[in-house]
Amino acid sequence: MIKPRSSQPPQGAARIPHDAVRRLFAGTLCAAALCGLVPAALAQTAAPAASSSPSLLVLGDSLSAEYGLPRGTGWVALLEARLRERKFDYRVVNASISGDTTSGGVSRLPALLARHRPGVVVIELGSNDALRGLSLQMTEQNLNKMVQASRQAGARVLLVGMQIPPNYGRDYTQRFQQLFSKVAKEQQAALLPFLLDGVAQHIELFQPDRLHPTAQAQPRLLDNVWPRLEPLLGTGKS
Question: Would the pTM of this model clear 0.70, i.e. be above it?
């Protein structure tokens, strides 16, 4: 299991008391740090399918890896179904691993790009970096590297942003939130500012541990992603 290095905010960060919503939100974000590897996700990266369809690669953490959900009910699986329904000829490769960081993504991405040659890459990483109090400069550098590598491989990129609870200190919290838009602007990549928009403040959309969105929440996550992703799909319809 990959856990946060410390439950304390970064040194010098001011503490802000949580209300119920903040506790829920903080717990939700911890989903990315409390889980082990997801064999199903790894299995999808083992070898490319024998298909002429372009691939759509999702590189994420537990929020994209179906933690605690029946297989096939996560937002990435729903995305695959929506692509079929709307006649987009893409093969979805979910390379998400629970607990992954941007450093892990940088390490894994070159092989994934070489193996799957995706037309579109969705990058949903960064929450674990902040939860572990890692350098935001390093997180920003890693996101830049992943976007650059994807673009150099000929893929269009969607960067998925996240937020952290305010007890990490206003400065750290704001800088973390802003780094996604900064990277997207510098790299001219598409951006979804917040994956959990419309979900984070609804306790009924979380599993009993109050850490992970339920299957019922997954369509909302997909609805958040879709408007930013669809323009990147081009004319890739069957």
Answer: yes
